[in-house]
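Quick review question:
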């Protein structure tokens, strides 16, 4: 990763588009806009403009297929999630991972599957400390 990509911090709208691209793979503006409109009404030109800006910032690559552009995320999902978690941890929880986890679990109805995954992670972390 080059130094410029390390500094990229997606806005909420950009992150919403990135999440769709991470889930769906390379997509057109129309496909992204259709996905956004499932959640809330977003105009096509708004989605187009945001994606053009994201391309200019180096967040997306763009390939032309006839008159259509296909956008692909350059940013790695886990890397961006890690940066967002780090920022949230520092700014909202004073660096305390336990405070953040307790707040998240207290505000969210976790499924049995999610709780089982959390337990596995805790066990793995405990085993690493031994």
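Suggested answer, residue by residue:
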């Amino acid at each position: 990763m080059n130094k410029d990509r390390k500094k990229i911090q997606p806005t909420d709208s950009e992150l919403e588009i990135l999440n769709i691209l991470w889930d769906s793979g390379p997509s057109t503006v129309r496909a992204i806009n259709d996905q956004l409109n499932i959640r809330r009404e977003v105009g096509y030109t708004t989605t187009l403009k945001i994606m053009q800006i994201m391309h200019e910032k180096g967040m997306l690559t763009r390939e032309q297929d006839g008159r259509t552009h296909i956008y692909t995320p350059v940013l790695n999902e886990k890397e961006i999630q890690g940066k967002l978690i780090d920022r949230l941890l520092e700014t909202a929880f004073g660096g305390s991972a336990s405070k953040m986890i307790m707040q998240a679990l207290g505000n969210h109805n976790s499924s049995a599957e999610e709780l089982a995954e959390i337990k596995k992670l805790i066990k793995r972390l405990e085993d690493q400390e031994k």
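Why it works: Residues 105 and 115 are 9 Å apart (CA to CA). The mean pLDDT is 90.
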